[in-house]
Write a structure and sequence with these properties.
Strand content: 5-15%
Order of helices and strands: EHHEHHEHHEHH
Strand order of the largest sheet: 3-2-1-4
CATH topology: Rossmann fold
Distance between the termini: 12 Å
Structural class: alpha/beta
Number of strands: 4
CATH class: Alpha Beta
Length: 140
C-alpha cells in the first residue's frame, strides 16, 4: 500500500460538522486510525487547516485547538518545508497548474511515492488524487 498524503480538505471536512464531506471525512480518518495506517502531511497542512477552520468557525482559538488535536496522532508524520520540497512543489505546481498549497501536497506525494487523498477538484483532476470514498472502496 502506498503512503497516504491527506489534504487539508479532508481534515477541515472532518472537523466541521456543517461541511458537505464531514461524515465521509470522519469515516475515512476513523478507518485509517482503526487500521493504524500512516498519514503523511506537509507542515503547511497545520496552517491550512487552522486558518480554514478559523474562517468557518469565526473562532481562532477553537480552530487552533481542533487542529492540534486532530494532527497530534502518532500515525501522522509532519514533513518540513525544506528547499527540496519547495523545488519539487514548483515543478509539480507549474506542470499541473496547481495552486501553491496544492503543489506542496503533490510534491510530498511525489517525494514519498504516495497517494493524495482529497476533496479538492484540482488535486483530483490534475495531480492524481483520490477521494476518501474512492480510496476506501479500493482498499477494503
Amino acid at each position: 500500500m502506498t503512503a497516504l498524503v491527506v489534504d487539508a480538505s479532508v481534515w477541515v471536512g472532518a472537523a466541521d460538522a456543517s461541511d458537505t464531506f464531514s461524515v465521509s471525512s470522519r469515516g475515512f480518518l476513523a478507518e485509517l486510525a482503526a487500521r493504524s495506517l500512516a498519514i503523511e502531511i506537509p507542515a503547511l497542512a497545520r496552517v491550512e487547516v487552522a486558518c480554514a477552520l478559523a474562517r468557518r468557525l469565526r473562532d481562532g482559538e477553537r480552530a487552533r485547538q481542533l487542529t492540534e488535536v486532530m494532527l497530534r496522532s502518532p500515525l501522522i508524520t509532519l514533513h518540513a518545508m525544506d528547499a527540496a520540497l519547495v523545488d519539487t512543489a514548483v515543478v509539480e505546481g507549474t506542470r499541473a497548474f496547481l495552486r501553491a498549497a496544492d503543489a506542496v501536497y503533490a510534491a510530498l506525494a511525489a517525494r514519498i511515492g504516495g497517494t493524495i487523498v482529497t476533496w479538492d477538484e484540482d488535486l483530483l483532476r490534475r495531480a492524481g488524487g483520490v477521494t476518501p470514498i474512492a480510496w476506501l472502496e479500493e482498499n477494503r
